[in-house]
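Quick note —
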Amino acid sequence: MYWVSWNQVLASHDKGGLDVGSLHAFNHGLLFKWIWRFVSQPNAIWVSVIQVLHGARAGIDLSPLQHKGVWFNIINTFCKAKDKGIIPNHILHFKVGDGRSIHFWLDNWRGVDALKNKYGRLFHLDTEANCLLADRCNDEGWKWSWNRDIRARNEALLNDLIGKLGNVVISHGTDSWHLCLDDDSDFTVSNTRAYIDDRLLPTTDVCTRWLKVLLRKINIFLWRLAMDRLPTRVNLARRGLEIEDTNCVSCNHNFESVQHVFFACSVASELWRRVRIWLDIHLPIFMDWSEVMPWFDSWQENEKTKQKVYVIFAALLWHVWRFRNSMIFPGEALKKSFLFDSICNFSFFMVFK
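Predicted structure written out below.
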């Protein structure tokens, strides 16, 4: 029986997951790294071999390839990812040098898309559709060549184009391809994987709170608690299991739901009372985990103190769950009278280890 979907487990902490990351996105990142190597290492011997087989641009400009093989599959995966919106159109674009390798209309050199796709009417009015950037821009400004006079509607479109182009600087360097998700960072596999996962994996309303000082199993336990995905008797009965008695095993006074076990049960209530006295802070009476985190986030205290209190909360909830399990499963039973002392010792160990 599974309690959380696998895609939710893979999702990032910001999306309410465990930030495992998907192999699908990781594989895409590794494949795209070969394209990054192709454009960043133009003098490498293997790049020359690819260009001999597939042409100077080798399909990175999305032109069809004639020969199938490994490189064909890499480019095909890249094209499909762009078509499905998994990666942005501007991920692969030209960086302007002397403008002698960039087709003004056909190539993506403004970081968004090829200009012909947005300014199709102007593209069809140009006398030379395959013109280079150097043919249309020099030190004096823009040079245009139209097959007929530009009318009012197309003139407004031309003014919009010039405004979008901004100040293009033609230098003496060579044009080069650039592969990245944004202009502020270079391509990395980890960033690409995170970008793809962010678009494909589900999102929950609450972000995952992950505290490094806590054991991993406790962080995961709190994550499941926040989503009500713990195997309490009520949750097991909801999933179709035949449960003879759904009452709380700790107090036997109410249905064993997440809310009761961790907040309303006499065992939990007494531990919360003693924690309030120990911390000596105004702590409201919580009835659900969804009430704890809003109070915690709005609490006006420094981050170091808030982290220590969060550790104490986690220790309390973890010991309540362990005590509940010890009442059901065979093994060493936890003594109720020692629970608070164990919470204190556990909290000090987590904070000062």
